[in-house]
Specification:
It is a single chain. This protein is mainly beta and about 150 residues long. The chain has helices at about 20-25, 100, 105-110, and strands at about 1-5, 15-20, 30, 35-40, 55, 65, 70-75, 80-90, 115, 130. It has one domain (about 1-130): Sandwich (Protocatechuate 3,4-Dioxygenase, subunit A). The chain has a four-stranded antiparallel sheet, with no helix packed on it. A two-stranded antiparallel ribbon has the order 2-3. Strands 5-6 form a two-stranded antiparallel ribbon.
């Protein structure tokens, strides 16, 4: 199971509605406190429809802002096997200033956290599509947050 906590377009963690999801879910989706969840298919694929989250100040240092991002919390066969990562959007002007993004020393690994624009998954006149592959093992694995 994967949960996807994120902020609203205003950068807060309040409930929000996703109108573009209506054709796929019979009615608009409401993310409660900015979180949804899904189960991958047999091949590990997933898809969800949401809004682009907003940037927000986080008081880590003077004038600190987090870039638009979506958290991914992945659970294995038990809740104790949880892995967490973040997906960023291409071209975000705040990426060079974000300590969370830049704490990953390897540039290639850091870029694996940036989603790719995906024209094929764009929903005409409703939603842009992005592709974010999460690789769990190997040389090209997605950077994950270290759990205590």
């Amino acid at each position: 199971m994967t949960t996807i906590p994120q902020t609203s377009v205003r950068g807060d963690w309040k409930d929000f509605v996703i109108p573009a999801a209506a054709p796929y879910y019979k009615e608009p989706l409401v993310l409660v406190e900015g979180s949804g969840s899904m189960v991958t298919d047999a091949e590990g694929r997933y898809r969800f429809i949401t809004i682009r989250p907003g940037e927000y100040p986080w008081r880590n240092h003077y004038n600190a802002w987090r870039p638009a991002h979506i958290h991914f919390s992945l659970f294995g066969q038990a809740f104790l096997t949880r892995m967490v990562t973040q997906m960023y959007f291409p071209g975000d002007a705040l990426l060079p200033y974000d300590p969370m993004f830049n704490c990953i020393a390897n540039e290639g690994a850091r870029q694996r956290l940036v989603a790719a624009f995906d024209w094929e998954n764009t929903i005409p006149e409703q939603a842009l599509g992005y592709r974010f592959d999460i690789v769990l093992r190997g040389r090209e694995e997605t950077p994950m947050e270290k759990m205590p």
